[in-house]
Design a protein that fits this description.
two-stranded antiparallel sheet
């Protein structure tokens, strides 16, 4: 009877749930890889002289949106999901567009995606349910994975509007990003 209970517990706590969590991580990584490609294509299509363009006075510029995506992606992945100390946005220079060329900003974004994806791939399925303090709210690491994609999409959309307002046709939307 004891062996039957142990076998039953092992079956209930292993394969199907963990397999779904593994698939969640794989799907999340695939989505982030696709998002990286599309974001870099958007960044490349905007002429460098338009990187300072703001749709409104209170909006972030094209370059500020791009670098904000990088900063937030770095912070959410490395500091929330990983354990690196958070960068301080007000004093950080890595993700500030000032004195950076278009090529340097694109390289920074590409490197940030590489570093973040490597970290996210190493998260074990069991860790996805670990809860974090997120601005006074309780969120799981799984929710942070989903938030990453939302945040990138939000700011990339602002970049697409900037392109349109400058007479540029953004690249065709690619599914699953």
């Amino acid at each position: 009877m004891k062996n039957l209970i142990i076998i039953t517990l092992l079956l209930l706590t292993s394969s199907p749930l963990l397999a779904q969590q593994d698939i969640f991580i794989e799907d999340s990584i695939e989505r982030l890889e696709n998002s990286r490609k599309y974001l870099l294509l958007v960044a490349d299509m905007m002429p460098e002289e338009k990187y300072g363009y703001k749709a409104t006075e209170e909006s972030l510029s094209f370059s500020e949106n791009l670098m904000h995506i990088g900063y937030a992606f770095d912070w959410h992945s490395q500091s929330l999901i990983g354990d690196r100390e958070a960068r301080v946005y007000q004093t950080d220079t890595v993700f500030k567009p000032a004195n950076k060329t278009k090529a340097e900003m694109m390289a920074r974004i590409d490197q940030t995606f590489t570093e973040a994806i490597a970290l996210l791939q190493d998260v074990s399925p069991e860790q996805l349910d670990n809860e974090l303090d997120y601005f006074g709210l309780t969120r799981s690491k799984r929710q942070i994975y989903m938030l990453l994609a939302d945040h990138i999409t939000h700011h990339r959309a602002q970049m697409l509007v900037s392109m349109r307002l400058n007479g540029l046709v953004p690249p065709r939307y690619v599914l699953y990003q």
